[in-house]
């Protein structure tokens, strides 16, 4: 069975740009829609060297990574019960939402 990944990037319009902290938020779920708590989500900027941004999903499968500047990123999502998802090109506009659906091993 292949891993399915659904990326839904949307600009978040909360507050003025001077007040908003650029962030990528999202949720990791199984194909049946249940949350995947404890999944590791890693963002890596494509291009110049930069620091990776990492988050772990909470009990409801949600994560938040702050300080994400606009640009192209690779996303890697891992959890021991599911197939790893990696090398997915994404685009952050400084405030985005991501929905990742993982398949079982």
Can you tag this structure with a few keywords?
3-stranded mixed sheet; single chain; mainly beta; globular; 4-stranded antiparallel sheet; Immunoglobulin-like; 105 residues
Number of domains: 1
Oligomer: single chain
Count of helical segments? 0
Mean pLDDT: 77
Structural Rg: 13 Å
Structural class determined from secondary elements: mainly beta
**Low-confidence region ranges:** 1-18
Helix content: under 10%
Helix-strand topology string: EEEEEEE
- Major beta sheet, strand line-up: 3-2-5-6
CATH hierarchy class name? Mainly Beta
Main pleated-sheet profile: 4 strands, antiparallel
Strand content: 35-45%
Structure summary, number of beta strands: 7
The CATH topology is: Immunoglobulin-like
Question: In short, what is this structure?
Answer:
The chain has 105 residues and is an all-beta fold.
Write the layout of secondary structure elements.
Blueprint: E1 23-29, E2 40-45, E3 53-56, E4 62-66, E5 71-78, E6 85-92, E7 95-101
Question: If you had to describe this structure to a student in words, what would you say it looks like?
Answer:
With 105 residues, the chain is mostly beta strands. A hairpin with a 7-residue loop joins β2 and β3. Strands 3-2-5-6 form a four-stranded antiparallel β-sheet, with no helix packed on it. It contains no helices and seven strands.
